[in-house]
């Protein structure tokens, strides 16, 4: 159900069925500095959308690992975080060799959804990218969705979810006919869960779009909802529809069900050079 990955964070309480209620500890924000490397950039020397997603994913994993909650420990405890949906807002994509301060904030679950926000700031404090992810806690073997209370064994208290917007995010499939693309899943698409990594879907989406949009414009917003995992050998049938002068819808079918839906918004043509000059 989702391009899953060794994952991020989130809330806590009783240690076992028979234990007394344990004390919670407030999880802190986590931050680290990175420098944008050449392999992370596209042909315009800007960090690719998929690598923004990879850094976002890694920030979540690094954060809870610092709290002693590793991917392996969660597996032993019978749970894993799966990406449900993601929304990325971009002022300007980072460029090659730029130093960035990454900050991630886990927020209390809302319903079955865990929430994590991650920010990409310049060393001058300018916010370039904001990502918000909804995660679902699931059994790693059956992929049955678990209640957030299952994570309570780790005794962590998250930040309030006031002002969150990811849990209500939806993508509406357009009525207009689109252009059909086919994409077979290969070895290089897979992660340690043997499914397509969530970040790879950004490359899949971008590969269906006109090259001049990706070169001459800036991505302003990217939203994706994961619905069914794609595995090696499957062919994803992609439907790409231009929904406005600055946006595309891309939906994917794999096997007998919908795999994902995405919406990508761009600046007007010509605005990119203005943004880069202001950098």
UniProtKB/TrEMBL annotation:
<keyword id="KW-0443">Lipid metabolism</keyword>
<dbReference type="Pfam" id="PF01643">
    <property type="entry name" value="Acyl-ACP_TE"/>
</dbReference>
<feature type="domain" description="Acyl-ACP thioesterase N-terminal hotdog">
    <location>
        <begin position="30"/>
        <end position="146"/>
    </location>
</feature>
<protein>
    <recommendedName>
        <fullName>Acyl-ACP thioesterase</fullName>
    </recommendedName>
</protein>
<keyword id="KW-0809">Transit peptide</keyword>
<feature type="domain" description="Acyl-ACP thioesterase-like C-terminal">
    <location>
        <begin position="177"/>
        <end position="238"/>
    </location>
</feature>
<keyword id="KW-0275">Fatty acid biosynthesis</keyword>
<keyword id="KW-0276">Fatty acid metabolism</keyword>
<dbReference type="InterPro" id="IPR002864">
    <property type="entry name" value="Acyl-ACP_thioesterase_NHD"/>
</dbReference>
<keyword id="KW-0444">Lipid biosynthesis</keyword>
<dbReference type="InterPro" id="IPR049427">
    <property type="entry name" value="Acyl-ACP_TE_C"/>
</dbReference>
<keyword id="KW-0378">Hydrolase</keyword>
<dbReference type="InterPro" id="IPR029069">
    <property type="entry name" value="HotDog_dom_sf"/>
</dbReference>
<dbReference type="Pfam" id="PF20791">
    <property type="entry name" value="Acyl-ACP_TE_C"/>
</dbReference>
<dbReference type="InterPro" id="IPR045023">
    <property type="entry name" value="FATA/B"/>
</dbReference>
<dbReference type="GO" id="GO:0000036">
    <property type="term" value="F:acyl carrier activity"/>
</dbReference>
<comment type="similarity">
    <text>Belongs to the acyl-ACP thioesterase family.</text>
</comment>
<dbReference type="GO" id="GO:0016297">
    <property type="term" value="F:fatty acyl-[ACP] hydrolase activity"/>
</dbReference>
